[in-house]
Every structure is written in structure tokens, then in C-alpha cells.
Design goal:
This protein is an all-alpha fold and about 100 residues long. The chain is built from three helices and no strands. The radius of gyration is 34 Å and the shape is elongated.
């Protein structure tokens, strides 16, 4: 059994790759891609494909927590609480100008 394309056909003829057409590419992005393609001795399409390749860096599917992380503050436990003592304060702040006497 023969593997690969027949000698008179290329792999792209047998397994055609889909085309991707991007209309309305901003000129600045196009110029950046073209400059990078020239600097890397690639065609514009090769440069775009290189940038679209996965880098292997991605967010994990689940958080990588190996231990429980405590809350950054003290949360009161349920049960009997401690009574709070009130203190006399200083002068009260003035009422806002939009608050009328009937709203109090």
C-alpha cells in the first residue's frame, strides 16, 4: 500500500488547506506584519501563520491550588457576639443640600 500522495499529485492537491481572508485589516497592522515578514524572510501569509500558532502558553483549565488560602481578614465566627459600646462623637456633618426637611 502506497503512503502519501501519488507521484504526480502534491499533498495540497489531495488535502487542500482552507483559505482565510481578512477584510478591513487596519493599515498599521498590515504594515507591522509586512515589516516583520520582510525582517524574518517570510511571506506575509507565513508571518501571519507564525503569529497564529499556539505558543503553548495558556490558562489552565482548573486553578492550580494545592492548599487552602485563608481570607485576608478576620471573619467573625457564628455564635455569641460581644456587645459593642457606643461613644459620643463630635459634631455631626451637615445635611446634603438636596435633602429636605420632609425627607428626614
Amino acid at each position: 500500500m502506497q503512503k502519501g500522495p501519488p507521484p504526480n499529485q502534491s499533498a495540497q492537491e489531495i488535502f487542500p488547506m482552507p483559505d482565510l481572508i481578512l477584510p478591513n485589516v487596519p493599515q498599521e497592522l498590515y504594515d507591522d506584519l509586512k515589516h516583520a515578514a520582510d525582517a524574518n524572510h517570510r511571506s506575509l501569509a507565513e508571518e501571519v501563520l507564525e503569529r497564529l500558532k499556539p505558543t503553548g502558553r495558556h490558562l489552565p483549565d482548573e486553578p492550580l491550588l494545592t492548599e487552602e488560602i485563608p481570607a485576608p481578614c478576620t471573619i467573625p465566627l457564628p455564635g455569641v457576639g460581644k456587645p459593642a459600646k457606643t461613644k459620643l462623637g463630635g459634631q455631626h456633618l451637615p445635611d446634603p443640600h438636596w435633602l429636605s426637611l420632609s425627607d428626614r
